[in-house]
Write a structure and sequence with these properties.
Layout (H helix, E strand, L loop, with lengths): L2 E6 L11 H22 L3 H5 L3 E6 L2 E5 L7 E10 L8 E9 L5 H18 L2 E3 L5 E3 L5
Antiparallel strand pairs: 1-5, 1-6, 2-3, 3-4, 4-5, 6-7
């Protein structure tokens, strides 16, 4: 199961660029809020919501790995590409979620959750695994 989803940071997004450290901070924030939700419900929701360990492989790549039987791994990378439609030729940043050959359907579900969370926080344009697009920024 090799698929990709990505979040484009468009001109009306909250941020135009993002670093791997900022991405880690957002994922840590996700873990923190899901843990607090679990505390309110008297349930270990934080562990179920984010069953991954983060490993930084290269400067622009992060791998989420899990020892849980339903999850294996998700790759996150930050790419910059030149947008031919953009007049000032500034590179457009995107966060790419890649499911590897060993990824499970559980990984795909968690990747969808994380994509939606990050796209909402960054007010970006989310391109889902199934090819559909969700807009989390204010459109004119």
């Amino acid at each position: 199961m090799s698929n990709q989803a990505y979040i484009k940071l468009v001109p009306s997004s909250a941020k135009q660029t993002i670093t791997i450290d900022e991405l880690k901070e957002l994922l840590e924030y996700y873990k923190e809020i899901t843990t607090k939700t679990g505390e309110q419900l008297s349930w270990q929701y934080g562990q179920a919501a984010f069953p991954y360990e983060m490993e930084e492989v290269m400067n622009q790549q992060l791998i989420l790995t899990s020892n849980h039987e339903r999850y294996h791994s998700i790759k996150l990378s930050i790419d910059e590409e030149k947008d031919s439609n953009n007049n000032d030729h500034a590179p457009q940043t995107s966060i790419q979620f890649t499911l590897t050959a060993s990824s499970t359907y559980g990984d795909k579900g968690k990747a969808n959750e994380l994509c939606k969370f990050l796209a909402n926080k960054l007010q970006g344009e989310l391109h889902l695994f199934n090819g559909r697009i969700m807009y989390y920024y204010k459109r004119k």
